[in-house]
Design goal:
The chain has helices at about 5, 10-15, 20-30, 50-60, 70-85, 100-115, 130-135, 155-160, 185-195, 255-265, 275-285, 285-310, 335-345, 370-390; strands spanning about 35, 95-100, 120-125, 140-145, 165-175, 200-205, 230-235, 245-250, 325, 350, 350, 365. It is an alpha/beta fold. The chain binds pyridoxal-5'-phosphate.
């Protein structure tokens, strides 16, 4: 952009750092035959019965706006789904808002809650959108470290010691992108008690809830004292392989939903109706499809963790989501160098961990939302790459 024109861009947007992985992925896009372990979306096509619901809605001529809150049938389906899978009950009439992906729900939650200078605590490494979304609301991020020796679970003691005056929100993402970290119920209960003690509002992004591989997922909103101080965020992108449909939702006490709704009605108005119809089908009748996909991810998790460790890259078993997050320190390369060299020499794309904030440096994110066969080839190539490196040193 010419400097002349750049003067029109708002200061807080100029200050926003460029995504650390954009250049890298532009390079990936220009190369042929790359096996990408870089992408955070399911390799499955949306199950047929869900696609069919969208087609049927289109055939019936459903091409109009919906209520700003979303179709009431969908909000009823969300209410039953969340009650069945998360153990929390929300009223479809005024405690649920349908959004354009969890991305919009997160943005709305922060825009509705944060006054300039309010502090938002969140565990890191974290999803790439968290820093910029907090920054765009003029909030201040307060990092809570998570570490590989804990399999990147959330330690209540670290939450407590990260707290400082001015903290208003605790933003959680369990299971976690990029680490696959989960946190056992007992620890979550302790964190919940701390949130009550410090009067924190919790924004809980549980988009990977169904992709939990050990035990059952515990929703923050279901813990004692939490329903009335939690904005629960969830959506269809990951578990139902519906990223392109762009459906997310927020569940919270009516006053908070009303605040988010104010922003939503003037910006997005409503989520696309065809996608809402498809989401209804997914939530009402999609459990079997989710189970089938989760079983496949679970099998891939075993193989990628075993193969990465065998190649000399120390890797914990992720408790959820579809990401392995190995350390690349043994390679003698930084995470950026590792990702770049692996791409150039073996045509395998992984994401440098430093793109995910504090504590991500020295790690790379390898998505196993890719076919089992491609995963095996990628692991063979990583092994060869590591062998070559060890011969050089
Ligand atoms: N939250 C987390 C932790 C994610 O990993 C993602 C997508 O990668 C999102 C939110 C956004 O998802 P959606 O497609 O629902 O906007």
């Amino acid at each position: 952009m010419e400097p002349e024109v750049k003067r029109f861009v708002a200061d807080h947007v100029v200050e926003l750092p460029k995504s650390g992985i954009r250049d890298f992925f532009e390079l990936v896009a220009k190369m042929d035959d790359v096996i990408s372990l870089g992408i955070g979306e399911p390799d499955f096509v949306t199950p047929w019965h869900i696609r069919e619901a969208a087609i049927y809605a289109l055939e019936k001529g459903k091409t109009y706006y919906t209520s700003n809150l979303g179709l009431i049938e969908l909000r009823r389906a969300i209410s039953s789904y969340v009650e069945k899978h998360m153990g929390v009950t929300y009223r479809p009439e005024d405690e649920i808002l349908v959004t354009v992906g969890v991305s919009e729900a997160l943005d709305l939650a922060l825009r509705a809650i944060i006054n300039p200078g309010d502090k938002v605590m969140y565990h890191q490494p974290c999803y790439v959108s968290y820093h910029p979304t907090v920054q765009l609301t003029h909030g201040i991020g307060v990092p809570i470290p998570t570490v590989a020796s804990d399999r990147f679970g959330l330690d209540p003691e670290k939450v407590k010691s990260a707290w400082e005056p001015g903290c208003k929100v605790l933003l959680l993402n369990l299971p976690c992108n990029p680490t696959g970290g989960v946190t056992e119920k007992k620890k979550l209960e302790e964190i919940a008690r701390f949130a009550v003690e410090k009067d924190l509002l919790v924004i809980s992004d549980e988009i990977y809830a169904e992709l939990t591989f050990e035990g059952v997922h515990t929703s923050m909103a279901a813990l004692p004292g939490m329903r009335d101080r939690t904005i629960f965020l969830h959506g269809c992108s990951k578990a139902f392989a519906m990223t392109g449909f762009r459906i997310g939702y927020a569940c919270a006490p009516a006053e908070l939903i009303e605040a988010m709704m104010k922003v939503h009605q003037y910006s997005m108005m409503c989520a696309p109706i065809l996608s809402q119809e498809a989401a209804c089908e997914a939530l009402l009748r999609g459990d079997e499809s989710v189970k089938m996909m989760r079983d496949k991810y679970a099998r891939r998790r075993e193989v990628i963790v075993r193969r990465l460790n065998a190649a000399g890259l120390e890797c914990h078993r992720p408790g959820g989501a579809f990401y392995a997050f190995p350390s690349v320190k043994s390679s003698g390369l930084s995470d950026d160098e590792f990702a770049m060299w692996l791409l150039k020499e073996e045509k395998v794309a992984v994401v440098p961990g430093s793109a995910f904030g504090l504590g991500g440096e020295g790690f790379v994110r390898c998505s196993f939302a890719t076919s089992y066969d491609s995963l095996i080839v990628a692991c063979d190539k990583i092994e060869m790459f590591m062998e070559r490196l060890s011969q050089k040193s």
